[in-house]
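This entry is listed as follows:

___
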Amino acid sequence: MTEKIIVVGCTHAGIAAVNEILKYHPQADVTVFERHDTISYLSCATYLTLGKTISNLDEAMYADPDYYRAQGIDMRLRHDVIDINVEEHTVFAQDLETKEFTTESFDKLIMATGSLTSIPTIQGVENPKVKLCKTYEEARDLCDEAQNDERIAIIGGGYIGVELAEGYNKSNHEVILFHKKETLLDRHIEPEIADKITNLLEDKGIQVKIGTIVKSFEDGANDTLIVKTADEAFEVDMAVICTGLLPQADLLQGKVDQLTNGAIVVNDYMETSNPDIFAAGDAASVKHNGLQTDVYMPLASQAVRQGALAGINVLDKRLRSIGTQSTTGMLIFGRTLACSGVTDLSHGFGCWN
């Protein structure tokens, strides 16, 4: 009997899962639901485009839906999954173009729904001049706005915020980077290395406001935006929220085991507490080898590995995850930052070259 597999979400984890299903389970009947009209977008493309590393956002797409259709995959783009009935093994979805609803059954399901930007509780955060920077549509908006805006505020000094600050700096924008903690990249590296990164950004002309909490966004004169902290007010043309990510796993809330932040808990085979449901990528947890516990670590590299494992194991458990050491890296103005493992419960062991 042909097994029916449904994959919900088709960015890095979803694509990796489908690729492995085609290789290991070519007989399977596979349907993919994706609410956007594009797949495989790399969110780092925003700063790469601004900094002229790539010429446009489309260069960050590495997979074509028509390729998978030619392989027999039922690719349903612009379809929003509204509900998953785990008892009846069905998915209820809407075609966002025709507005029609459909119910599809499954034998196995892979959740690869990714993450959402964690939006801070700041007065005025709904202002249209306050932008997000995760999806292809949001990135296109940022790049379009950059043609006319000169002064950019970035809220959040993690990987995304620091990279975006560099991108806007390279495109000749004035940049103010706000971070509420006392050091940049505080979840990843030691303060000594964070201080070096701060000095580098400031040497390039970026204003870095560490230990600073943004209190509100307000309309300013001449179509500007006022960013207010406890002590100061800054007039900019646009602000970008880069304050972290949250798992997009509400469809399975209360139906499988989850971490306190909602991330779906998976075992070494990417299987959830329901043996017919697998999860991978930003929607799922990962086993941290240093801490020996399940953690949330939304990284593209991790999503690809987990997605591949989900696709390999979905019908037959073949390959176990080896966990993660939380190894990451980034390039900042020609300097390399790399970190791995933990030195305490907050910081990895970093190196700077």
